[in-house]
Amino acid sequence: MNIDDSFLQIARRQVSDQNSQQIKKEQAANDFEEIFAKHLVKEMTKDSFKMSDNSGVMGSANNLYREHITDALAKELAEQRKLGMADLVTKYWNQSKASSNNH
What we know:
mainly alpha
């Protein structure tokens, strides 16, 4: 093993670490958008699923149905990045990184 091989291995490891960090940041941004979307959809649909009797079997089935619909809509919104929250988080991290590199 010579110096060039060692340098190449170190460079590959560093690039791999940077890619891994970027993937983790993207996943965190997407997760944040999904959480935000879930709260948004839940708030928007809270009156749509009200029933006069929430204590019986139909009430718990209604709550389960509402939770399923809320999760599905939130996941779809987050995957499409329609709300822009993931993009804002990513943009903030990139600006933070750029400003820390300038100092």
